[in-house]
Specification:
heterodimer, A: Rossmann fold, 8-stranded mixed beta sheet, 29% helix, globular, B: alpha/beta, Pyruvate-ferredoxin Oxidoreductase, domain 3, Rossmann fold, 3 domains, 6-stranded mixed beta sheet, 21 helices, 20% strand
Chain lengths: 355, 636
Amino acid sequence: MNSRISGQDGRLPVLTKKDYQSDEDVRWCPGCGDYAILAQVQKVFAELQLDPDKTVFVSGIGCSSRFPYYMNTYGLHGIHGRAPAIATGLKIARPDLDVWMVTGDGDGLSIGGNHFIHLLRRNVGLKVLLFNNRIYGLTKGQYSPTSEVGKKSPSTPFGSPDEPFNPLAVAIGAGASFVARTVDTDVGHLQGVLKRAAAHQGTALVEILQNCNVFNDLTFEAITGREHRADRQLLLEPGQPLVFGKNRDRGIRFRNDGAPEIVKIGDGADEVPLSALPVHDEADAAARHAFTMAQFDYPELPVAMGVLRAVERPVFETVLRAQEVTARKGAPKPNGDGQRDLEALWNQGDVWDAD
Amino acid sequence: METQVGESQVSQASDAQNQSARTERPFREVESVVIRFCGDSGDGMQLTGTEFTRATALAGNDLSTMPDFPAEIRAPAGTPAGVSGYQLQFSSREIGTPGDQPDVLVAMNPAALKANLADLLAGGSLIVNTGAFTKPNLTKAGYDANPLEDDTVAAYKVYKIDITRLTKLALASSGLDNKTADRCKNFFALGLAFWMFERPVESELDAIRAKFGKKPILAEANITVFKAGYHYGETAEVFAETGSVRVRKAPLPTGRYRNIMGNAATALGLVTAARLAKLDLVYAGYPITPASSILHELAGLRAHGVTTFQAEDEIAAACAAVGASFGGALGVTGSSGPGIALKGETIGLAVSLELPLVIVNVQRGGPSTGLPTKTEQADLMQALYGRNGECPVPVIAACTPADCFYAAIEAARVAIKYMTPVMLLTDGYLANGSEPWQLPRPGEIAPFPAVFRDDPEDYKVYRRDETTLARAWVRPGTPGLAHRIGGIEKDALTGNVSYDPDNHDWMCRIRAAKVERVQNEVPALKVNGPDEGELLLVGWGSTYGAINAAVAQARAEGRRVSSVHLRWLNPLDGKLGELMRRFTRVLVPEMNLGQLVQILRARFLVDAEPLTKVMGQPFKIAELCRAIEKRTTVRN
């Protein structure tokens, strides 16, 4: 731990992945996708040399929400669904801190759904890692708000009757300024997205498709399996045409009515030249394509991966601070014991003296 | 005008010769006056009341106010349900309540008369706007016949004034349309009251100009009507014989004063506490009656290091306050009962995290939505026990509007010192009521700077201070002290997750012991009266003024009664049991169905008796006097 405090020979210390590992035993099930995410987060933190003492991980309740215990940073393991509110309060009080939030599809989208949308609406400067495994793990396998219709689970023996929602479409609808999707098992992609999120000002939402090998094994296998993922994922790159497929021979374009369609790339009769494909615009003001692409689903369409949306807009705590600076102009300054302005405050309105 | 029941009646007619030459007109001098303005929700009665209060405060009287209004913003016009009232007692001596019964009632329409007449003291003055006593208004109010023309008001001194018409006449040349002109009529009532009680006109003119600054036409119209009301008093024959009423300055302790409402005092107390602790204040709230005005007060104080956050719901507000405290600020959340119910889990989290947090509960009538604009003390059990698990929090209750200032500071001080959430209980009566507040002298309140640990050497997250049993507070960002805390049970030293049975048992007991240690902060019980006798009244919260007045009255009659008022409801003063046993009987007045009384009986095995009332209204002094009379004998 001391290596973090002062470097030897006056040089800045170099932090390694190990420096971000806490002394707590990691208690996820063997084979859980969370291990991979934890490792990549620690790796990215080391790569970016993020200061563990200036970082806070905040979470709610659920398997993913144990995450803060395993990061050797400041951490707060909160209550079910409320991490966005706790993290918002922290960020309001301490805009100087780098605050990361970890949540799951039950925690973040069901019990905490209200906080989730308001966090995104406000654009608080947080990084949000949403582990989506489409199931409640810690309570043993009930269906979640992202489970498919008909999902059989202990609470839905006849199949779940309700339609899931798409976390990223919800986020874009709520006005999110940064929306991305990645996969627990795709190390390189996960790292790339985490780095982009780390650099974003405002709320950066990263949905991580994560496998629960105990209660919902292989739920994303059709999308994330190594042998077919290139054909079933649309890997988004800013400014690049919407191309996918093992042979990079298929593309997406949008018809005049906005509906997406898959086309073959080429110069043939039924083909579309690469130059005619739309390019990915993360900052599209209307977020029309991002909203549509967020909902691409296999088998009809390849699932969009990467940064779907990244725009700059005012950050909540920055606006608050700016208000404070304005308000302080011309206001009485606190004196030595910090009470002069208080006296002014007490004396507001109609005062009179009794003698 | 007369004073409270049983008090010496100072209602004496003085003649003008004894007074200074500048007043030639007749007047009467009295000790205290209780006046109530009432009218339709849209009639501006709250404004009339607060303006009259302002002038009364500046005149140096002691005072106590009680606004009373419906939950609906514009309840059906002209109906008793839509009546809004503002009661004020002012006096030349110290008083603690807005008065049991008005001795002056200003009724702006039949519905207001219907809803309030029964409260008027027999022989009291009734000023009534006859212009509103039209057939449709009488019907809406539920009167078959005009009560001003039968014996309904026979027991009172009635001043029938067509305020509607006089207002219209005063504004005849103003160019205002009828409807707008009519809305100025509350200023006629205000002007008349100013004349009646000898309030200075000038400051009110300034106040009206300031209030309606953006609409000079309205400001001038209101001033015109206000003056018309004042001059009416001066010239109308009906007042010629009785003259005005004089209440001398109250002998308040030397100092600077300001009239303050409870919620404003709570807000100022929180700001002051944060400054004394050298912390930023983060107040997170969600709109709810009657707590919202704390959020409003604080929202304007950004220049004083206050950040407010209107969260998406009550839970988020509590969580944001916890997050702020984790960050090293003073996190505060406030609400009323229903909102506190939602915050319960978060308060439990703060208990487990052992972080400072102040939760303000401005209690209102319950259960459920209950009576949003009315007062009650029925959230005591919720404050003490309304969470899952063994989840003790210190609970403090303010006892007067101005006391909210000190109670808020005390709540924050204990929260910081003991690293614990503290519940501050006020209620609708304190929140909206007001009284003169003697401003603290600079440096009068001792600072209590928060201490943050910054030494990484051998840091254990849940190691405790031997005296307070509090763990150390660490600001994130402090080098070498990174740590994780959470709502799962923690190891008693490292704070790491622990499911060990002995550890959990230890942690539950140590958290409870920590809260018990707050007893060290509780000043010795202050008994109002001798510390033994026939009857002891044990009160808490806003019943303070009424209990004190009733006890004083009963003692003056020769009854051996005392009272004690609890500031901390948790922990309780251990000596309370001993004190109660020195009295033959113990009576616990509460605006609930008997909550503190249960605690006292359970904790001290004393046969304490409840005196309960849940009418959305505070206790009247007379009600308490009757209860005392039933249980005591007169000795001479």
